[in-house]
Amino acid sequence: xxxxxLKKEIGKKIRxxxxxxxxxxxxxxxxxxxxxxxCYERGVNLPEPETLKKIARALGLPxxxxxxxxxxxxxxxxxxxxxxxxxxxxxxEEFKTLPIERKxxxxxxxKILESNNEWWIHALMASTxxxxxxxxxxxxxxxxxx
Length: 146
Fold this sequence. Notes:
Elements: H1 3-18, H2 23-30, H3 34-41, H4 49-58, H5 84-97, H6 100-115, H7 118-137
Helix pairs in contact: 1-3, 2-3, 2-4, 6-7
């Protein structure tokens, strides 16, 4: 692969992985300059390996993730429009920071999904918004038992 192609491919991948995160916020979290992020995304410059590690870590991904070759599914080109590999990695990182009460909630949700019990899954789907919001804000909602 030519150097220009590699720059563009890595740049596209950084842009896609960044999603709705602002360049400024990613740069700050990675400890690099916003202009650098912009240059990488446009394929103007090729990041050094250490910089790629910083960017990946700032996105909550394994250090080598940006360099991995991926299938169409992993690149988020499937019809659902999200990248499950990235979502799972982000969820794992977020899970580590949750208090034990939140981890118990997530474990119960996992058990319901594994049960394949249609009634429980329907009930879970109906209450998903409240669960997601409670987990996102990390504040217990005593009224709903969350």
